[in-house]
From TrEMBL:
Pfam families, per the entry: Prenyltrans
Source species of the chain: Skeletonema marinoi
Keywords, ordered alphabetically: Metal-binding, Prenyltransferase, Repeat, Transferase, Zinc
GO molecular function, one term: metal ion binding
Xref: Gene3D superfamilies: 1.50.10.20
InterPro entries the UniProt entry points to: PGGT1B-like, Prenyltrans, Terpenoid_cyclase/PrenylTrfase
Family from the record: Belongs to the protein prenyltransferase subunit beta family.
Protein name as it appears in the record: Geranylgeranyl transferase type-1 subunit beta
Gene Ontology cellular component annotations, sorted alphabetically: CAAX-protein geranylgeranyltransferase complex
Amino acid sequence: MKKFERLRHIRYFSHSLRTLPKQYSAADTNRLSLVHFCVQSLDILGCLPVDTDDELICGTAGEDVYVNRGEIVEWIYGLGTVPTVRSADGYVGGCVGGGFKGSNYLGPIMSNDDADNNNDDQSSSRHPYDHSHIAMTYVALCTLQSLGDDLSRIDKHAILSTLQGLQKQNGSFVALSPTSTEYDVADEVEAEDDCDLRFMYAAIAVWYILTSNDDDDDDDENTTTNDYINIESATQYILSCKSYEGALGLTPGREGHGGSTFCGIASLYLLGVLDDVMSREELRGWKDELTYWCVMRQKSLMKKVVDDDGSSTTNKNDNNGYVVEEEEQPAGMVGRPNKKEDTCYSYWIGGTLHLLSSSHLMDGWALREYVLLCQSPYGGFGKVVGAMPDLLHSFYSMAWLTLSKENGCCENEEEADDDDDAVYESEVRSQVRESIGKLSKLDCALGMCAKRTR
């Protein structure tokens, strides 16, 4: 069984919070996503603060990790965008631009006229590209919650009413929040990639986070949580993305894909309609088709054997080219048929099966072994075996290992040298196992792990 290099992963993610290789500069506009990956992974590893009143936190287990909770929280709040207008008759539909942007690479820029006239209208002084993005709003809320923030400083109504304006008539959501009240969703350029299931999932997750425990906080007594989004049209759009295989494509008519399938099923779960949809007469059998499609995405690694002449070949037989052996083989997940294994799909497809209460149908041991084979000696996980680590695949590999509830991934194979070390290792394992035990279907759908304050 492959060892889980916990300490190396802790150092990888904590170091990545402080500095990144220059290749990440191309992702500067999405810097908030990179922070999200690091913080969530450290949460899984048990290295985030327990006492949320502390500003400067070292890892609770004493590893080589340093997390400045206060600075991260303040930085995220600094990325919040200011809504341009609030109508006199309430929040719903009355403002645009509420949410978060991906980084502070481009802050509000005042024009010369605004500076001379000391214009108090914030909307007129904003740069046209200084706007919120639905995916960045999603990762901001997730990260703040993992850091123990209560979201009390969030303008929930501004974000929700902006979200309402982003939903199109067909139920999908566009990604970018405009900076002008003259914006009309119907006039949005019909680019499919601007309103696919990724943004549906982000929008529904934002809606759920901000409304699920908002029983008494609504300032408008005439407004209910369902007024912000059209659940029926959102559900219909998700179902329109169903492919002939049973999986979900990013948009209607596209090939089924592991990532978009997770986003669609998780959205239905968060909307509270997943069970109802699966029980519809016109969709009879869809759950079985979808489950079969997901299970069939697990692919065993081909085993290399050395012939008598010293040459290395792939061991095959007449059974479709695969060898049936007594020894179990690592088996990763592929996102689509005839593609290579990829560690992130262990979460996308494994998470989908988890939401369908069917994760027991895949080979969890083989999938875990494949993910652990992709560990880097520097910490983190690569996309495939032998690849350099990156934050996206490292986080989703960690998320799957947690979701799979394989407690062995937290074991330390090395024996403790004395009684104190034995107690220390026992505390570490207990802490991480507690995080694993708290992971629920809700956390799977939101991409959040471990300590929940909700």
